[in-house]
Amino acid sequence: MNTERALLLAILLGLPACASYASASADDRCGPPPAMEKPLASLGHDPKPFEMRHAPEKIFQGKPGGYLYRFEREDSGTTESLRAVHMFRGGRILVVGDHGTALLRDPKAGWQPEATGTTENLHALVPVIHYKDGETITEDRRKNHPSLAVGSNGMAVFRDLSGVWRTESTGTSAHLFALRHLGPKTVAVGAGGVMVERSLEGVWRTVETRTTADLYALGSCGGYLCAVGAGGAMVVCKAPDGELVCIPRPPPTQATLRVVDEHLQIMGDGVWLSYVPTEKTEPRPPASFAPWSAAKDLVAGEEIRATEHNHWGGISEMLAVGRRGTVWFQGGLASDRNHLEKVKLPFEVDFHDVAYELVDGFLVGDKGTIVHLGVQDFVPDHICLL
Amino acid sequence: MRSSPAPLLATLLLVLSACTTIPRINTSPDTPTLTEPKRTLVLGEVSRGDTRSPDHSGGSTCKNGGRTGQDLDHLYGFEVHETASYRFEFVPASFEGVIQIQKKHKAGPGHFGIGCKAARAGNKATLSLPLEPDFYWVIVDGNLWDEAGTYTLRVDRDTSKTAVIRPEEPALVAPLCARAPLVRPGERTYGTFESKSGGARASCGLLGGESVHRLSLAAPTRIRLRAAAHFQLALEIRSGCHEKPVVCTRADAGHYEVEVTTDLPAGDHYVVLDSTRLGPPNTNGSHLDEARLTGAYVIDAEEVGP
């Protein structure tokens, strides 16, 4: 780790930093340098993992030659399509999929099935992260959140802190494809433009979207909640009096949209849209999007199904997944966002979702596919805070 | 190399002293406990007073020096029944004074300032603010330490050319009509509303803005318009850019869509979309300079049978 980089990162993050060109002095002030981060231990299921070298950040060049990225298939114990994954703090990973499948990763015993109480296909999964006023936030509480999954025929299942699942009535029979947690509420969207909203107490109500297009994804769009879907459908919502009000926007494309990325990007079938900046500040009008020319050739004929950002300094980047084992890496926090790299992984399945944090990633897809990404030899930045 | 700890200790003490809270002299606590107003400000009427006989209600929070201190003040209550711009005129005859308009916090006790204006002795301070229905506090205070005396204060509706909420200005609206995008029967029209003082204002709306659409009919038609927006909207149809409205409808409180059905002759008609409420306040909690509203809307138009 070099000192200039540590200082620059600290400045970028708005943090006071100390560093010294004298290594002994730096140790005095900052403690020992961080150790190498090791990915979660392999389950040992894949006799021939796929390995590639990749440099996640481009500005500093990072480690010469980048890091070794190892993609390793894990035995899920199921052939059902797996459609959503979430990685909790502390290395717990939860996956849901078709016919009510839910799997929790045990570092020793491997993927363990859980009884969700439903046979519906589960398409989306979110942690329900909300702390009540006055609640003590313990480290255990940080690592352990209730979860919510939704799926076909309006199904919703809630997993409590003890790992017990229970079904909930959403009030709709439409297929639900996406979830988004918003403060104490959780919002789901799905077929026919349906949107339902869940209170912290588990009470669901319908929200008018004023569209009949199938909605496949939800995300934040510069102060608004965005839902996107078939035929380029886009609906933007805000809550002027505490209740969501959703208004359709002109479709920015005719292609089906499947992802609302956290960095104001929208992706889908052969299309990658980026935010069109506006000079207006507050109050901000609804965001506009246009095709990102740099991605045109890399997404033609592809479907981008999900993205996840790794926010850790030194390894910040976005990982997107698609059909037939295709993934994309995009530069992140301290990198060149215009850098997009497409990689064809040797897993001939369609991926549906991805989780990615620090040196671990999990890609889930058809035929019970779970692929563990482990980034080798990564040492976090040495930033000293006063 | 070892060095003496003295410079280090001195530096440490310097840093510590810089970070220590230094007690201030002649100041009251940051959040004084205010009483209910004893005085009432009535629209269109002059109020007179002498703050040498103060109410001691806590004073303004914007007086010169920036802190509440002496409360040589008078506290008025002012009830607003209708959203509009209001002009406060304050003349401190014998002292340097200040007026501050305060609004109650939505959650929790206390009020916060949303507008403030000071004047020297014998001069007039004029302050125009768009206000929604509520009960506001108006505080007359000395702008400097020990300043107190006689004053006059009045408030009127402000429809001047500088008011945030003001009538439509034809010169601003004509270009909007000239480039108005079409609303077509059987189609959905998308738009983004931006409030603009003096812009196109529905007769049953409030703010004025830049959202004008044209509806071009080849024959007399019964037309139904359904509109929805991120804000409480008003929708008006005119048969000319500056003509009187054929129809105007507004969303009820807590609703975000309207529907109107009307018979229109052949020709061009204009659809004006407006808001019935102010946008979110600025970081100071006020709408001092603009109505600050933006949001998306859709208009669905269809021909309906007689």
Automatic annotation (TrEMBL), chain A:
**What organism does this protein naturally occur in?**
Polyangium fumosum
Keywords, in A-Z order:
Signal
Q: Does the keyword Signal apply?
A: yes
Q: What is the lineage of its organism?
A: Bacteria, Pseudomonadati, Myxococcota, Polyangia, Polyangiales
Protein name, as recorded: Uncharacterized protein
- Residues of the signal sequence? 1-24
UniProtKB/TrEMBL annotation, chain B:
Q: What is the lineage of its organism?
A: Bacteria, Pseudomonadati, Myxococcota, Polyangia, Polyangiales
Q: Where is this region: Disordered?
A: 45-66
PROSITE patterns, A to Z: PROKAR_LIPOPROTEIN (PS51257)
State the name under which the record lists this protein: Uncharacterized protein
Q: Which residues form the signal peptide?
A: 1-20
Q: Print the keywords alphabetically.
A: Signal
